[in-house]
Amino acid sequence: MDKSEVTLERMRSFVRVAERGNLSAVARELGLGQSTVTRHIRELEQAVGVPLLTRTTRRVTMTEEGRRYYADCVQILRLVEHAGDEARSTRDAPAGMVRISCTAAFGVLHVSRFIFAFQDRYPDVSVDLSLTDERIDLVREGVDVALRLGPLAESSMKLKSLGRSRRVLVAAPTYLAERGRPARPQDLANHQAIRMSNIASSDVLVLQGRRGGRHAVPFAGRLRVDHGLAAREALAAGRGIAPAHLWLVGDLLATGRLEHVLVDYSPPPVPLNMLIVPERSGVARVRLLVDFLAEQIAQIPGIEKSPGRRQD
């Protein structure tokens, strides 16, 4: 390969380094050695005749020329991928990689099996599923689609509302037999709460009454966890009371391992959304997976349509 050539391989390495700001991370992502990625950048700079990146000990940033060149590279790579999708569409067989980020417990219990079904239907599509409750930068991390529970900040991402996730207050029969069953929201102050450490203000529980009214009650206990599956295990083990998504504990309620507490009151439902990188929304395999997941997720018990909002 001539060092004076502008190639798609070199261009891809440059775009991802510009987005992530980290050579080693991009090397891992692309399955290349860091020296190879560094060489791609050096040879691309030689080909275009200007420095594109500035390197420090901590970070790689774009030069002014690099920023202008980056915008053009993104458009070129998008057109190349679109051309490939169009060519493959003639045989109705989408192929390639889709990268998804998903709330951890929801991904383990539900989204993973939907992805298995999708790949059975489209065997040439590869999926990279990342499970995290952190709000990551989709572009920087190379993610196409993210599934997120909870309110979202303003974003340049394309938003697809999947509805609201219903929550219920639950505890194990063994816990209720030992500590008694609360009869009103205020009684929760005398119970052991299982709290989520990664949720702000979890020391106060807000409940909505069936007949209206809002109750904010102290919610404290000896156990805090930062993962939904850990909360599920703690509930089943009789460690306390907690608000839980119905998709997280529905099977435990059905088998009697957990019971509803304060059935006339419930925690407010939580928005469930899909974020899609705009530049990736037109890629056939991404579009197919987005539509497939939206259809499957709508059928999960406890996922309700958002009132007054059209489901895209």
Which features characterize this protein?
single chain, alpha+beta, six-stranded mixed beta sheet, three-stranded antiparallel beta sheet
Question: What's the gist of this structure?
Answer:
Helices cover 39% and strands 23% of the residues. With 312 residues, it is an alpha+beta fold.
Secondary structure elements and pairings:
Elements: H1 8-20, H2 23-30, H3 34-48, E1 53-55, E2 60-62, H4 64-89, E3 96-102, H5 104-121, E4 125-131, H6 138-141, E5 145-149, E6 158-165, E7 167-171, H7 173-179, E8 194-196, E9 204-209, E10 214-218, E11 223-225, H8 228-236, E12 242-245, H9 246-254, E13 259-260, E14 265-266, E15 270-276, H10 284-297, E16 303-304
Can you walk through the features of this model?
- The structure is a single chain.
- The chain has 312 residues and is of the alpha+beta class.
- Helix 1 (8-20) packs across helix 2, helix 1 packs across helix 3 (34-48) and helix 5 (104-121) packs across helix 10.
- The mean pLDDT is 89.
- It is elongated, with a radius of gyration of 24 Å.
- The chain has helices at 8-20, 23-30, 34-48, 64-89, 104-121, 138-141, 173-179, 228-236, 246-254, 284-297; strands spanning 53-55, 60-62, 96-102, 125-131, 145-149, 158-165, 167-171, 194-196, 204-209, 214-218, 223-225, 242-245, 259-260, 265-266, 270-276, 303-304.
- Strand 3, helix 5 and strand 4 (125-131) form a beta-alpha-beta unit.
- The strands form five sheets. A six-stranded mixed sheet has the order 4-3-5-15-6-16, covered by helices on one side. The chain has a three-stranded antiparallel sheet with strand order 12-7-13.
- Helix content is 39%, strand content 23%.
